[in-house]
Amino acid sequence: MWNDLDRTRIRAIFFDVGGVLLSYASWKKADKHLDRELKKRFPKLNIKKLHETWAMEWSRRNRATSDKCFETMRSQAEKSLHLSLVSLGFIPTRAYVKSVLDIWYKIAEKNSEAIPGARRMLAKLKCSGYRTGIITNADWNVVIPHLKRAGLLGYIDYKIVSSRLRSYKPDLKLFKEALRVSNLKPEEIVFVGDSADLDFKPARKIGMIPLLFNKKGGRGRITNFEELLQFLHSRGENDCLK
């Protein structure tokens, strides 16, 4: 796919966060605690059905948000969980929903961990003179502590976070902000994400070099960080990338 690409022009690598730099394992641990707490309060609650309903409602709220009516991820989580419980026949107070999600977020942060090889990869990029950044749909006060806990924050130069820009990917506003803060041209930036719609397509549309982080592999895809380093190494000799 990139046979004709002049890789010597690449100056920065931007990443999505969840599923690319950070593992979702911490959220799964938080889910288990949340499930236990909800079961104590609502013994007849079908946990599987709740998560399905919560995911759909959260996704709906996320798609409906806009610059004029922006809603943070935390607000979406609380309102969608409350509505999901109500739709299943349970009547929680908003204070209760807030309290269980407070714990949910704390457990996820406490257990935040990097995708295997992420720290080594970022260190190699920095050693090689590349600048690094993130473009992510997240709340600033959530993603930054998670990256710090996982030992990755110090390797990241630019932080493009949806809550700061009041917009979510695939809005090009976030990608344009990456160009602005880095003062680079689109063709000088590689963007690595795990979603075709939220990451690959908008990055390609704005002119960046998009790579899809996907275990299945294929054209325009990488299955691990070593493949990213190999992709960049082809721009010329660089001991840091070996």
Describe the structure.
The chain contains 10 helices and 6 strands, in the order βαααααβαβααβαββα. It is α/β, with parallel strands linked by helices. It folds into 2 domains: 7-23 and 113-241, Rossmann fold, CATH 3.40.50; 25-110, DNA polymerase, domain 1, CATH 1.10.150. α9 (196-206) links the parallel β4 (189-193) and β5 (209-213). α3 (73-87) crosses α4. The longest helix has 18 residues, at 47-64. The protein is elongated, with a radius of gyration of 19 Å. The model has no long low-confidence stretch (mean pLDDT 92).
Structural class: alpha/beta
**Order of H and E elements:** EHHHHHEHEHHEHEEH
* Overall mean pLDDT: 92
Ends distance: 23 Å
Instruction: Predict the CATH topology of the largest domain.
Output: Rossmann fold
Count of discrete alpha- or pi-helical segments spanning 4 or more residues:
10
Provide the CATH architecture of the largest domain. Answer: 3-Layer(aba) Sandwich
Assign the CATH superfamily of the largest domain. Answer: HAD superfamily/HAD-like
How big a fraction of the residues is strand?
A: 5-15%
| Mass-distribution shape | elongated
What is the C-alpha radius of gyration, as a whole number of Å? Answer: 19 Å
Total strands: the figure is 6
Main sheet attributes: strand count, strand direction, barrel closure: 6 strands, parallel
Describe the structure concisely for a colleague.
The chain has 242 residues and is α/β, with parallel strands linked by helices. The protein folds into two domains: 7-23 and 113-241, HAD superfamily/HAD-like (Rossmann fold); 25-110, DNA polymerase, domain 1 (Orthogonal Bundle), CATH 1.10.150.
